[in-house]
Amino acid sequence: MSSTNPLRTPTLDFIARLTVDVASPWELGESADGQRRFIAITGGDVTGERLNGRILAAGGDWQTIRADGVAELYARYFLETDEGERIEVENTGFRHGPPAVMKRLRDGEAVPPEDYYFHTAPRFFTTSTRLDWLNRTLFLGSAARTQDNVLIDLFAIG
């Protein structure tokens, strides 16, 4: 490919903010891959120009905290739009930062999101014809952890 014909640079289009309410972690313990834990998803809200509704209290986040301090995240849960359409979410990601910052997060302190890396790659599955675009679009989540929830700004990659 010649440099006179570059590929299109992707854009990020804001879709919605997910406020995912979570319970306290259940610690499984140390494994060969790192410390394993599970965090139940207890509800939440979805607010945006293209998607609005609530997060159902069904699902959770399976985490592995690696020896290098990186948290590998794998969450599965359901959204329900204001119109009653259901959307299954499968969200993977990474969270990491300086050890002192990560300790503050674990202790439930408020930490500015710019002090650590927390991004996800959600996939959506729905049978709604109105929302079929979710089934064929790639997304990026920019996230932050608070004491009671996870905030995810959801962007479609265009």
TrEMBL record:
Name the UniProt record assigns to this protein: UPF0311 protein KZO87_08235
* Similarity remark: Belongs to the UPF0311 family.
UniProt-listed HAMAP family: UPF0311 (MF_00775)
Domain of life here? Bacteria
